[in-house]
Amino acid sequence: MPKSKIELLKSLTLTDFPSGSSINYRHEKLYLMGDDSNNILILDKDYQKLDSKQLFDYPESRIPKLLKADLEASAIVTLNGHDHLLIMGSASTKQREKVFILPFSESGLDVPHFRVINAEVFSNRIRANGMDPLNLEGVTVFGRNLILSNRGNRINNTNHLIITENDFWDRQGDASLTIIPLQIPTVNDEVPGVSELCHVEANDTLLITFSSELTDNAYDDGAIGDSYIGLIDNFSRKLQNHPLMVDQIINLSDIHGDFKNVKIEGICVEQAKRNALILHLISDNDQGETKLFKVKMINHA
Question: How do residues 202-240 score in pLDDT, each as one tens digit?
């Protein structure tokens, strides 16, 4: 199996955008979400601000923990031939069982026409299959399906992938549902928790970000440990494997000191070539700041 190496190209701290939780790349623009932010931040690929779109209207810069939708996962999905930004709450509480669907128009993200769907029925189906408590932290497009990830913690340390249809919110009672446990190499005597997914169609690789955090549940934060990028090569051919083995996991703190004391929460692909990927990562330091990283991932035989 080819081994991947990572090189840090750029990092930047955003002091005025809180709690970075997911990031997407589309048409030369990056779309940033924060789990307690009022806005979606739009940057160019060099991290210069282009725009900000308001989703919520709370007076504080950070939405209070009891009230936030906890938007932890996002992806660009195609519905009826048009791109949309899908943003999902973690489903760790009733307040967080929300799915946001924002269409793109020719001029960009069309926030006035977004939909908010209560996903309680679908969340309860996942719980009925043994995923309790829920902490949905990742989503990515996989053909006509979506792959979600449920994050483990120190007590329930198994992470899972959840495969369903790319419009599950409209057919929550009967949308297909497959749950697969992830087998992750132990690092530093612990199993880190999944924080985001990204399927790279060009080389059929599933990228998974992980972070370690000293917490025993799906609600509370804890002391920040290390963050990682994991890979599953030839992902489509391995889907029948239960559990599904992560082929390689890379400790980002070993790559550069800028990765220390941050939780990598999101990942997206800017450019995919045969043996190299340009990736953007987003992180949260639990202090109201967001840090961005641009990295190059190179595959070596």
Answer: 999 999 999 986 655 545 555 678 999 999 999 999 999
**d(C-alpha 18, C-alpha 290), whole Å:** 6
Which of 297, 79, 119, 88 has its CA nearest to residue 208?
Answer: 297
pTM metric for this prediction: 0.94
Nearest to 8 by CA among 294, 299, 298, 300: 294
* CA distance to 88, 140, 235, 236, per residue, from 136 (Å): 8, 12, 20, 22
Would you kindly state where each structural domain of the chain is located, as residue ranges? 24-269
C-alpha 210/C-alpha 89 separation (Å) is: 18
Radius of gyration of the chain from its Cα atoms, rounded to whole angstroms: 18
What ranges in 119-234 are assigned the alpha helix state H? 120-128
CATH class of 24-269: mainly beta
Characterize the bridge pairing of strands 108-109 and 115-118: unpaired
> How far is it, in rounded angstroms, from Cα 137 to Cα 114?
21
